[in-house]
Amino acid sequence: MARAKKPRRRDNPEAQMRLGAHLRELRNRFFIALIFIVLGAVGGFFLYQPLTSLLFEPVLSVGEISPDKRVEIVYDSVGMPLEMMIRVSLFFGLVISAPFWLYQVWAFVVPALRKKEKRYTLGFLAAAVPLFLGGIALGYWILPQAVRMFLTFNPPDTSNLINANFYMTFVLNLLLAFGIAMILPVVLVGLNMMGILSAKQIIKHWRITVFLIALISALAAPGSDIFTMFYLAIPLVLLFAIATGLAALNDRRRAKRLAAMVGQEDDLEQATPLEELP
């Protein structure tokens, strides 16, 4: 019995996939990304103590700077240390495996790239990975300032007994929000390269974009800390402007290439036929 031939690119030039194929692709990409995250989390188990000290340092350093303030992190249940170890390890796995799961996200979004367009994958990873890690570093840099600001509202001769679970949730959410927000402009450029979003459309909706940036920054900012909001909003606005400029350059290059192709077709249509031989 003859085997069914695999559809070739020329039979399906746009590389369209059925919904079921998309769901299977999403499932496979998700499991591959999850494997890399779990492998990174294994390394996080061995680095749990220094990682926890690093994350607790912004709070514990307040007591060193202000001797009149007593600040402690407490565990209010027997199983919380184990839960904390799992959460910190998974967070470390997510960070350390960023190049791998970001590639899986990109490969799912643009599965039909031609050979000449494969360089976009390297460009995406070269931009997204440093931005993601840089966003996490930025979040960690402003974390001590946010913590100190909140603790300044303490009345004199009072202590802060901070629940470890609540504090770790606050820190990890803050760092992830900064990291993910930083790669959003790269997604805009990727959508533009795929022909889904043009620079004119991005500029046309700049008010909505600025509003969303302000909303994301406000959600990522702890409490009512307006300084943290600006620390995130300003880099995002700059990255948005850079992404818009790159999209405009790509649109101009695409328009020139299309005009050249149209000109060649017109030349072929206007070419005079060969004279018949006598």
UniProtKB/TrEMBL annotation:
<feature type="transmembrane region" description="Helical">
    <location>
        <begin position="229"/>
        <end position="249"/>
    </location>
</feature>
<feature type="transmembrane region" description="Helical">
    <location>
        <begin position="122"/>
        <end position="143"/>
    </location>
</feature>
<feature type="transmembrane region" description="Helical">
    <location>
        <begin position="30"/>
        <end position="48"/>
    </location>
</feature>
<comment type="similarity">
    <text>Belongs to the TatC family.</text>
</comment>
<protein>
    <recommendedName>
        <fullName>Sec-independent protein translocase protein TatC</fullName>
    </recommendedName>
</protein>
<keyword id="KW-1133">Transmembrane helix</keyword>
<keyword id="KW-1003">Cell membrane</keyword>
<keyword id="KW-0811">Translocation</keyword>
<keyword id="KW-0472">Membrane</keyword>
<comment type="subunit">
    <text>The Tat system comprises two distinct complexes: a TatABC complex, containing multiple copies of TatA, TatB and TatC subunits, and a separate TatA complex, containing only TatA subunits. Substrates initially bind to the TatABC complex, which probably triggers association of the separate TatA complex to form the active translocon.</text>
</comment>
<feature type="transmembrane region" description="Helical">
    <location>
        <begin position="90"/>
        <end position="110"/>
    </location>
</feature>
<feature type="transmembrane region" description="Helical">
    <location>
        <begin position="206"/>
        <end position="223"/>
    </location>
</feature>
<keyword id="KW-0812">Transmembrane</keyword>
<keyword id="KW-0813">Transport</keyword>
<dbReference type="Pfam" id="PF00902">
    <property type="entry name" value="TatC"/>
</dbReference>
<keyword id="KW-0653">Protein transport</keyword>
<feature type="transmembrane region" description="Helical">
    <location>
        <begin position="166"/>
        <end position="194"/>
    </location>
</feature>
<comment type="function">
    <text>Part of the twin-arginine translocation (Tat) system that transports large folded proteins containing a characteristic twin-arginine motif in their signal peptide across membranes. Together with TatB, TatC is part of a receptor directly interacting with Tat signal peptides.</text>
</comment>
<dbReference type="InterPro" id="IPR002033">
    <property type="entry name" value="TatC"/>
</dbReference>
